[in-house]
Amino acid sequence: MAELKVDxxxxxxxxxxxxxxxxxxxxxxIAFDPADRGELLYQQLTAKGFHVAAICLTHGHFxxxxxxxxxxxxxxxxxxxxxxxxxxxxxxxxxxxVSYGPAYTF
Length: 106
Hints:
- It is a single chain.
- The chain is α/β, with parallel strands linked by helices.
- Strands 1-2-3-4-5 form a five-stranded mixed β-sheet, with helices on one face.
- Helix 1 packs across helix 3.
C-alpha cells in the first residue's frame, strides 16, 4: 500500500494554509481550503503533474473559500463541507468576505 503524502501552500491575505493530500505515486489529490488564489493553485498543482479530484472545506470563512471558482474552472469536481457551514458559504456577511474586498458566496 502506498504512503499518503500531505503538502501545502500558504497564501492569501490571511496566509491561509491550502493543503493537498495524495497517495505516493498517484496523480489525484484531495485539496483543502483553496484560500483566495484558485488559478495559482491550479498552476502549481498541474506543474507538479497533479489532478484535483475533490475539494474539502474545513469551514466557510472567506479566506478558505474564495479560491474555489479558480480551481473549479479548471477541475469541475465536487466540493465537500459540513452542513453547518452552509450559512457561511451562502452569506458574504457571515463569511466576512464583505470586510476584505468583493463579497463572495459559494
